[in-house]
From TrEMBL:
One of its GO terms (cellular component) is nucleolus. It comes from the Eukaryota. GO terms for molecular function: mRNA 3'-UTR AU-rich region binding. Keywords: Cytoplasm, Exosome, Nucleus, RNA-binding, rRNA processing. Belongs to the RNase PH family. It is found in: Cytoplasm; Nucleus, Nucleolus. The lineage of its organism: Eukaryota, Metazoa, Ecdysozoa, Nematoda, Chromadorea. Its main location: cytoplasm. This is Ribosomal RNA-processing protein 43. GO terms for biological process: exonucleolytic trimming to generate mature 3'-end of 5.8S rRNA from tricistronic rRNA transcript (SSU-rRNA, 5.8S rRNA, LSU-rRNA); nuclear mRNA surveillance; nuclear polyadenylation-dependent rRNA catabolic process; rRNA catabolic process; TRAMP-dependent tRNA surveillance pathway; U1 snRNA 3'-end processing; U4 snRNA 3'-end processing; U5 snRNA 3'-end processing. SUPFAM superfamilies: Ribonuclease PH domain 2-like, Ribosomal protein S5 domain 2-like. It comes from Onchocerca ochengi (Filarial nematode worm).
């Protein structure tokens, strides 16, 4: 059983030279060990396949870490049913790092998502017929576990000069300076993931990049939550 468009969560993100959209399809199912979030990533024909594969690995790892939301947050009908979220992701263009926009887009769609409550008259020892489940007329936002934000840097040291840290590098720079770091940070400076390729400076350089990633996450997360609150206030004006 699915839900109609009123509960849809969607997002559009343009960040770090990449543009991504995400639309969430929510379906009811009995509680099980199956994944509750299933990313389905498509990309424009001109986007290299290896970039899409790398992005898929990153998303699946964050989902496995419950970085976006927990299983409990999607349970309904007294814990007997759960919402399964199919994330329909489209990568429209890439001129730089893809994971930054992708991570922001998924988080934004989940913050935007609204779902109804489900209820059933079935006894606890009787399997639930999904087609007979009742859905509430009211919708609510889910409780996100975190708002992960990815930041990509290139580290470059010109001869006889200090280390340079380049944020949001375009595609050409990856070929010129292959030393890169991708840092995924959540609320309260929680580090979900650090990927490093090549030599990215000393410990102080890494600390500086982490500090910048934390600052970006705070700005992005606050912007998402403010947009959500603004949308809720506008909705109340119609009643």
């Amino acid at each position: 059983m699915g839900v109609n468009g009123r509960s849809a969560g969607s997002s559009f993100a343009r960040q770090g030279g990449a543009t991504v959209t995400c639309n969430i399809e929510a379906l009811l199912a009995p509680v099980s060990d199956a994944p509750i979030i299933v990313p389905v990533i498509q990309a424009a024909p001109n986007i290299p396949k290896n970039l899409v594969e790398d992005a898929m690995v990153m998303v699946n790892q964050l989902v496995a870490q419950n970085a976006f939301c927990t299983r409990d947050a999607l349970k309904t009908a007294g814990g007997r049913l759960t919402w399964l979220l199919n994330l329909h992701i489209m990568i429209l263009n890439v001129d730089g790092a893809i994971c930054d926009a992708l991570c922001t887009c998924i988080a934004g769609a989940l913050v935007d998502l609204r779902l109804p409550d489900a209820s059933t008259d079935c006894e606890e020892d009787i399997p639930i017929d999904i087609n007979k489940v009742k859905l509430s007329e009211t919708f609510h936002h889910i409780e996100v576990a975190d708002i992960p934000v990815s930041s990509t840097f290139i580290v470059y040291k010109p001869p006889n000069e200090e280390v340079k840290i380049l944020c949001d590098p375009v595609s050409e720079l990856f070929r010129i300076a292959p030393n890169t770091a991708m840092i995924v940070v959540g609320n309260n400076a929680r580090i979900h993931r650090i990927n490093q390729s090549g030599i990215c400076g000393d410990e102080m350089t890494m600390k500086h990049m982490v500090k910048m990633a934390i600052g970006r996450q705070k700005v992005v997360a606050e912007s998402m939550l403010k947009a959500k609150e603004s949308h809720l206030m506008k909705g109340k004006e119609y009643f």
